[in-house]
Amino acid sequence: xxKAKADNKFFAAMRAKEGIDAQAKMAQRTVEKQNKLLEKxxxxxRSLQAQISAQxxxxxxxxxxxxxxxxxxxxxxxxxxxxxHQLQHTQKHLAEAQQIMHVRVAESSSDRDAKRKLEExxxxxxxxxxxxxxxxxxxxxxxxxxxxxxxWQLREERDKLLVSLL
Length: 166
What we know:
mainly alpha
């Protein structure tokens, strides 16, 4: 009976040992699974860290681009103001030039009118001179008429006046 008790104790100890071994194996598998999950979690963490780093770089690039665009906008605004000032200045000069042009056109028109009047007067004077010369030639060509000294002086004076008109 003692042997049976000892065998029972042995088998109970063996079962207990097998149970503990089974629990140890189960714990070992659980630890391995947890290690694999931990490795996967670390890989995911590294991946997420890389994504965060990439996103931070993208944000930095966007900030730099935004600052550059703001700088360009400021520059463009300054250039716009400068160009508007130049436009106003140019428009002012254009208005002045147009005013001068209108004055000169008016002067040209009045000069043209004065020239036309002078040409008309010159034509009238030329016709008058032509008529006087014709009369003079007719008088000179007329035979038998003697001119007195007074008439001769009047004729010479008339000729001088005609020459001065031309």
